[in-house]
Amino acid sequence: MNALRYIAGVVALWVALSGTALASAEGEAGTMGIGAWLFIGFCALIFVAQMVPALMLLGGMVRGLFIGKEKAPSAPFN
Q1: H-helix or E-strand containing 23?
Q2: What is the C-alpha to C-alpha distance for residues 42 and 48, in angstroms, rounded to an integer?
Q3: Distance in angstroms (rounded) separating the CA atoms of residues 64 and 69
């Protein structure tokens, strides 16, 4: 019974210590996975989607500066 307990303890210790070795990324230093690229692409998509209305608003403001004010239409019941 003690031999079985000893073997089970050694196996448990081996499994517990090998998990950290398998989780290390020394073999793939400096590389990103597909999840990181998808996250960066999603952030870029949000950025571009918010830039379109901002550029349209900026264009309207610049156009308003150079065109000037148009004459307001007269009221129909004066």
Answers
A1: helix 2-23
A2: 10
A3: 7
Task: Kindly state the tokens that stand for 37.
Answer: 């690229």
What distance lies between CA 32 and its chain's CA centroid?
Answer: 13
DSSP, res 29:
T
d(CA 18, CA 13): 8
Q: Provide Rg for the chain, Cα atoms.
A: 33
SS3 content of the chain, % helix, strand, coil (to 5): 70, 0, 30
Tell me the whole-structure pTM to 2 decimals: 0.43
> 37 CB contacts (<8 Å, ≥6 apart)?
none
pLDDT in tens, 29-47: 567 788 889 999 999 999 9
The token duo for 36 is: 């990181």
